[in-house]
Design goal:
This protein has 240 residues and is mainly beta. It contains three helices and 17 strands. The protein has a single domain, classed as Jelly Rolls, CATH 2.60.120.1440. Helix content is 13%, strand content 43%. The strands form two sheets. It has a five-stranded mixed beta barrel with strand order 10-11-12-14-13. Strands 1-2 form a two-stranded antiparallel sheet. A hairpin with a 2-residue loop joins strand 7 and strand 8.
């Protein structure tokens, strides 16, 4: 587990951040993060920065503005929690991402290495948003998405919302995934197994707490309910 994330989760559990269901222990959450997450002041991009983070080749600080076309790299053990427009993300340590969010009608990001958790605002019918890894292409409408770019495969979890997932090396192999709560994670493989590049995967390495924090930074709430709610499809166990 990434060290910055491990420290975050251990601290969250020790403080009892989740008061039950999706209720927050606000005092504990403020102690964990330094403040209760909410929309950032105008002109601010970074909510949390741990370790060495470079934005456009320069060391980032809490005051760094992240533009829609930023190139971001995190060192091992680092973490960045930030907002760009109507979208928010957590970039794990030892990760690299290129943003291309300036064009309203055609937006995207490329996760070149590492891991990233995103929440995206809803797009209109004419607006295109695509997330790419070295081996996967993910068309986004408005969703929570966790991706990992590994050397031999990519991990994709459509936490909630709707995506069109395809293999970069074989665009004809694709899946339309509609998820309520981490329903259908996938591996996208560099080399096919039994003729397939897209195969089922387990639920790994991200939590509902992190999604709750991200959505709150852009003034929204997660769409899933408390444990025990009835879903029309199978769902993953509640992920603290």
């Amino acid at each position: 587990m990434d060290e910055a994330r491990r420290r975050f989760l251990v601290r969250a559990l020790s403080l009892g951040v989740l008061a039950g269901g999706l209720g927050w222990n606000r005092m504990a959450l403020a102690e964990l993060l330094g403040r209760v997450p909410g929309p950032l002041p105008e002109g601010n991009s970074i909510f949390r920065l741990v370790g060495e983070v470079n934005v456009n080749g320069r060391p980032a600080s809490a005051d760094t503005f992240i533009s829609p076309d930023a190139h971001i790299h995190t060192a091992p053990g680092a973490e960045l929690v930030a907002v760009v427009g109507q979208d928010a993300f957590i970039l794990r340590g030892n990760s690299e991402v290129e943003l291309s969010l300036g064009d309203r009608m055609r937006q995207g990001l490329r996760l070149l290495s590492g891991a990233m958790l995103n929440v995206f605002g809803e797009r209109g019918d004419e607006e295109q948003l695509e997330v790419r890894t070295p081996v996967a292409a993910i068309g986004i409408r408005g969703t929570g998405l966790y991706t990992e770019a590994r050397t031999d495969r990519s991990y994709v979890c459509n936490c909630y919302g709707e995506v069109l997932l395809s293999a970069a090396d074989d665009p004809d192999e694709q899946e339309h995934i509609v998820s309520r709560h981490h329903d259908d994670p996938r591996w996208v493989l560099t080399e096919p197994e039994d003729g397939r590049r897209i195969i089922p995967a387990p639920f790994i390495n991200h939590t509902d707490l992190e999604l709750i924090v991200l959505e709150s930074l852009v003034g929204r709430s997660v769409p899933f309910g408390a444990p025990g709610r009835t879903y029309p499809r199978r769902r993953q166990d509640y992920a603290y």
